[in-house]
């Protein structure tokens, strides 16, 4: 498998570097000897120490996007919105920005464009977020049909440093998980470092099968994904306690979702749970049906949920985001 010929001189333009996935990806690219050039709105000494260059600006700044891709060998586009006040914001940031960035990359002579999409793009009818991720994939093709493209669709991403999945870890650690949907619903997951490794491996290997432009679903290697009951059992074994699951009919939470959306419009802050997010959570099949053979061998998943849960829980506890679990308190005594 052919690799990047001279990693020390390759410039990799990265958006979303300050986010959860972006930070892990920048660290992985740097560890592989690649040179990430990152787009940042605000100073971030830890990130900047890993980067070969920094462009000040944000995703809506066309001039900053042009500076970011100038002279780059590849683009890794991670930046975007996962929550928003208005549905139009998802389209403006996730779709329109992708189209502008791809056009800027093509005009600058960039050879490859790696888009981090979402498994939600598989069901665009469920929510404005899902629709915007699907539209972003199409926008990439529309903006530069001759550009060499890879599109990855991660499922739920978790790991140290993630605040989005912290509430779920709190429930697991507390022994009771409350989720909308059917007990038969199944879903896939991926540990953040596995995702970052997959992205870095694709950057290093331009002849990997994933560069054909067809979306590549990712997961942690658990065939058939998980049911919440299975996830609770795995977490319970790691915690040394029983973890119960309460599945609620989505209709019971619909008034909460609509009320949260109304408050969001008044406050100008994203809703805690929107109607679209509720439909995503209640969807019965988020199994990735991953295609690891389309990734370079070193980019394939290594971390299963039991290990990933333990590593993440330990990180949360060390940072004080969660109290130390009983089993680890006993080990420390």
UniProtKB/TrEMBL annotation:
It comes from Aquibaculum arenosum. InterPro entries: Epimerase_deHydtase, NAD(P)-bd_dom_sf, NAD(P)-dependent_oxidoreduct. It comes from the Bacteria. It holds the Pfam family Epimerase. This is NAD-dependent epimerase/dehydratase family protein. Gene3D superfamilies: NAD(P)-binding Rossmann-like Domain. Residues 12-208 form the NAD-dependent epimerase/dehydratase domain.
């Amino acid at each position: 498998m052919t690799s990047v010929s001279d990693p020390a001189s390759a410039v990799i333009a990265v958006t979303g570097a300050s986010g959860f996935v972006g930070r892990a990806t920048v660290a992985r690219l740097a560890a592989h000897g690649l040179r990430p050039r990152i787009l940042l709105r605000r100073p971030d000494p830890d990130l900047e120490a890993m980067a070969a260059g920094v462009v000040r600006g944000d995703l809506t700044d066309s001039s900053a996007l042009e500076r970011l891709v100038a002279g780059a060998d590849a683009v890794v586009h991670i930046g975007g919105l996962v929550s928003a006040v208005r549905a139009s914001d998802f389209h403006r940031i996730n779709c329109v920005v992708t189209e502008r960035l791809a056009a800027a990359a093509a005009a600058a002579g960039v050879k490859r464009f790696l888009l981090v999409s979402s498994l939600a793009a598989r069901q665009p009818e469920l929510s404005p977020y899902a629709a915007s991720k699907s539209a972003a994939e199409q926008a990439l093709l529309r903006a530069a049909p001759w550009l060499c493209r890879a599109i990855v669709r991660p499922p739920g991403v978790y790991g140290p440093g993630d605040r989005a999945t912290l509430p779920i870890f709190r429930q697991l650690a507390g022994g009771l998980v409350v989720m909308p949907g059917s007990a038969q619903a199944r879903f896939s997951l991926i540990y953040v470092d596995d995702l970052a490794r997959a992205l870095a491996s694709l950057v290093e290997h331009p002849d990997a099968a994933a560069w054909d432009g067809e979306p590549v679903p990712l997961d942690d290697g658990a065939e058939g994904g998980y049911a919440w009951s299975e996830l609770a059992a795995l977490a319970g074994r790691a915690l040394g306690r029983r973890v119960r699951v309460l599945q609620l009919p989505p209709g019971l939470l619909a008034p909460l979702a609509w009320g949260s959306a109304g408050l969001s419009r008044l406050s100008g802050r994203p809703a805690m749970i929107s109607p679209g997010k509720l439909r995503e959570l209640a969807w019965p099949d988020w199994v990735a049906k991953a295609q690891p053979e389309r990734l370079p061998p070193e980019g394939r998943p290594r971390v299963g949920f039991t290990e990933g849960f333990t590593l993440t829980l330990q990180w949360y506890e060390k940072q004080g985001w969660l109290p130390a679990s009983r089993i680890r308190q006993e080990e420390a005594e």
